[in-house]
């Protein structure tokens, strides 16, 4: 039986996936961190914090990043394994 991952692990993995998508987009479009910082009106250090994977990114921050990149962020919400147990009959 595989060990169950905590929701903290899952949130961390999701945050890292988002950062990975942003860095992939930047690489594909040849956008540097300095370019992103200038487009966002923030310091290069702030962009490094955002892209570190350790930052607790808000939706506002993600919106600012994607807006500065001229990109769109999409996600899909679906059932997780054991989701039926999360909300017993109400």
UniProtKB/TrEMBL annotation:
The record, for InterPro entries, names:
Cro/C1-type_HTH, Lambda_DNA-bd_dom_sf
Top-level taxon of the source organism: Bacteria
Xref: PROSITE patterns: HTH_CROC1
Provide the HTH cro/C1-type domain boundaries.
Answer: 28-80
Q: What is this protein called?
A: Helix-turn-helix protein
């Amino acid at each position: 039986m595989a060990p169950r991952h905590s929701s903290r692990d899952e949130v961390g993995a999701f945050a890292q996936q988002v950062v990975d998508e942003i860095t992939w987009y930047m690489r594909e479009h040849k956008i540097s961190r300095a370019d992103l910082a200038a487009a966002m009106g923030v310091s290069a250090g702030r962009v490094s914090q955002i892209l570190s994977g350790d930052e607790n990114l808000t939706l506002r921050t993600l919106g600012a990043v994607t807006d500065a990149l001229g990109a769109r962020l999409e996600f899909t919400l679906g059932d997780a394994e054991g989701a039926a147990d999360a909300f017993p009959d109400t």
